[in-house]
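Batch job 17 of 40 flagged for manual review because the log was empty.
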Amino acid sequence: MIEVSFYHLTRRKLEQALPVLLEKSLARGWRVAVQARDAKRLQNLDDFLWSFEPTKFLPHGTKSDGAPETQPIYLTIEGDNPNAADVRFLIDGVNAAPLLNDPASAPKTRAVLMFDGNDAMELQAAREQWKELRDAGFELVYFQEDERSAWAEKKREKKA
């Protein structure tokens, strides 16, 4: 069973933290899927990743770009996995359980739920997902930003 990591944003916005984690994933040789809740958010993320830093490039695409199997980072709002992602980032409160329980959608190695700790709805959704995934037997890891905006592991629950 894959590891599920919860990344609790307390200091930075998703747009500041996600590109760093995407870069680290690519550096490991992983293929990535990023799933947002709606098409508008996905379009904003697509636009942002093209311009987030002038000296860096994160190769990515969406369904509208075609050939999703060639995309190192695939952005989606669907429960698909056409680029055979090793890691899947779920943002905006996307529910992980249906994806992780479907072999056609699940990433090979890891799922990452990123949530804004300053948004009460996202925080509550993350807590509910933690309980659901723990009860389903997934190995869970909880990370929170520290005072330097570095990720600190705060909790780990291994499957029984």
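Reviewer: the log was empty due to a logging misconfiguration, but the result itself is present. Strands lie at 3-9, 32-35, 60-61, 73-76, 87-90, 110-116, 139-145, 151-157. Unflagging and moving on to job 18.
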